[in-house]
Design goal:
alpha/beta, 5 strands, 8% strand
């Protein structure tokens, strides 16, 4: 089965086949959880899925019928966005209002789809308030939860959702996506692709967002100078990382990519390595890298469960330094 319903969406073949099967067989789940860091296309894919399910023509999605156009413009009466513009958590009242809307029958379709962005902002009380609706929606109801933090959800919620996991793309696919968006080759540099770490949305932001570019440059300096930093300097870098919220997943991805390249350089694959990377790789042993990747993964898990971000980042940076030699 091909991905006929999601033409133009790059990579993520497993997720696309999963959703294509649901459309083709008519056996869609009542609740999906689209997981993945910001910039991987959760919102775009959710809209494409809604179009494929509700398109009025045989060749779905046609992107021409009234339903497809309304979904694209986000004004379809039966595709409802539950947005939360505040930096705080969803309130229980907001979720109760969503539940009430679910039980109002569709206006123009035989299906009613609710797309809940930033679903990780549902706290325990809000999740419990939504549980009954997620467990037993009306036959026409479907919920699409979009989140960058699956760990924020109760097991009772997770067990009732069909997970759609989005993964970073290869550099080749990120480059292709940028070209498809009209970006000239001259702007699609190796440095840009490294900083984007497989995230097409992040690559687009890096081309236009000077503040984000400064953040990635600061992170690059941190990685290049980490071996020689004092304890105070490491703490200052930890405070910088701890203050990040929205872009921290991107910085973690950038760290993984950098240390992966450093490990390849240490192993002798030096063709694309910079002079700085060759110099720094001499300070590490290959046996250091499993510990480094585990330290980054641990810090990311701790970020998601409200451990002090500064302390988590400090411990991570310390463990990312070369192991002391006997």
């Amino acid at each position: 089965m091909d991905n006929e319903y999601f033409k133009g969406f790059l990579g993520n073949e497993t997720a696309l086949l999963q959703l294509s099967s649901a459309v083709k067989t008519g056996r869609a789940s009542h609740c999906y959880m689209f997981c993945g860091e910001k910039g991987l296309g959760k919102h775009t894919l959710a809209k494409m899925f809604a179009k494929a399910l509700m398109c009025e023509n045989e060749d779905k999605p046609c992107n021409k019928c009234k339903s497809c156009i309304q979904i694209e413009n986000e004004d379809h009466p039966d595709v409802i966005y539950i947005r939360h513009e505040k930096p705080t958590l969803f309130s229980v009242d907001e979720i109760r209002d969503f539940s009430k809307q679910m039980y109002i029958r569709p206006y123009t379709s035989d299906r009613k789809i609710f797309i809940l962005k930033d679903a990780q902002l549902l706290n325990v009380q809000a999740q419990n308030a939504a549980l009954k609706t997620i467990e037993e929606p009306p036959e026409y109801g479907m919920i699409l939860l979009l989140t960058d933090n699956k760990e924020a959800f109760l097991p009772t919620i997770l067990s009732r959702c069909t997970e759609v996991a989005l993964q970073p793309l290869s550099d080749e696919l990120v480059s292709r996506g940028l070209k498809d968006a009209g970006i000239e080759d001259a702007y699609i540099t190796d440095d840009l692709l490294k900083r984007a770490a497989g995230n097409l949305g992040m690559a687009k932001r890096l081309l236009t967002d000077e503040v984000l570019m400064e953040k990635t440059m600061a992170q690059q300096r941190c990685l290049e100078e980490l071996c020689d930093m004092t304890g105070e300097q490491i703490w200052n870098e930890a405070v910088r990382l701890g203050a990040e919220k929205e872009d921290l997943p991107m910085l973690f991805s950038m760290m993984r990519t950098w240390f992966s390249d450093l490990a390849k350089c240490k192993a002798g694959y030096t063709r694309s390595a910079t002079p700085a990377m060759r110099r720094i790789s001499e300070k590490y042993d290959l046996s250091d890298f499993p510990r480094i990747f585990e330290a980054i993964d641990t810090a990311e898990r701790q970020r998601k469960v409200n451990v002090s971000p500064e302390l988590a980042a400090e411990l991570m940076l310390i463990k990312c330094r070369p192991q002391a030699k006997e």
